[in-house]
Amino acid sequence: MIAEMYKRRENLAYVLLVVVTLVVAGYLVLERPESTSGWVEASTFLVPLGFMLAVAITSRQKYNKVKGLSIPYSTTSILEIDHLVLKQDAGLIPRLLCFGKNGYFVGTYKPIHLPWYLYPVLIYKRSLLTMLPVTIAFISHTGETLFTLKRVGFKESVIAVYDQESQYLGRYVQEDFKSLLHIKGELRDCNEELILPVKASGFSGDFTLKDINDHRWAHFFNGRFPHEYTQIFRDIDNDIVEISNDVSQEHKMLLLGMIGYLFIARNNR
Asked: What top-level branch of life does the organism fall under (predicted)?
C-alpha cells in the first residue's frame, strides 16, 4: 500500500514532467528568445522541470526502500481508535491515508461516485474538491464504508455527515472555509443542537477542541511515528489527532467527518 503510494507519486511526477516539457517546448518554438537575456529568462522554466524530476527520483528511491515492507492492518476500527495519524496520499484525486499511532493502517478518506466531468477539474485544481458538492467516504482497510461527508450549499461552508446507512448525523459549519489559519465553526447534531464549538488560531501547531462542558473531544499535534516505520514516514512532524472515546458513536462520526474534511482542505489548498 505504501509502496503503491510512492509508485503513484513517481508516475504522477513523470506525467507532469512530460506535460510541462511539452508546454515549455511549445512556448520556445512560438516565442523563441532573440537575445542572451531572453534565454536567461527562459531558463527559469527549468525550475519546475527540475522539481518534477527530483520528486520522481526521490519517490523511486523511497519505493525501492519500502517495496518489500508491509504495513499491518489495524484490528481496531477508526470509531474505537484514540489516536489517528493522517498522511496525504499521492495521486491525481486527493486521498487521505489514516493510521493508528502504532503504525497500523486504519483506512482512507477518498471521494466516491465522482462524475466523469469532475476529473479534469480536480486534476487541474485539487483544492476545488472542498468547494464542490462531492461526497467523501471513510473506507476501512476491509473495504467497508463507515461514514460519508459532503459539502452542501454554496453560500455557506457546510459539511453534512452521514452514517453507514446514509442517515443524516449532523453538520459542521465554518464561517470562512478559505481561511485555514484561523478556524472558527460549529459542529451540530441532527437536531441542530450545538455539540462542539470549533475555534483555533492555527492548523499547523497544537490545539484542542473542547465542548461547552470543557470536555476534550480532540487534540491536534505534530508527533513521532513508531521507530520501526521511520524509514517510511517522517520521524517527527506527523499530523496526529488524539480523539476522545468518551463520546457517542454518532458524535464521533461527526467529529471524524469534520477532521477528515479539514485535513483534505488543508493539504490541497
From this structure: Bacteria
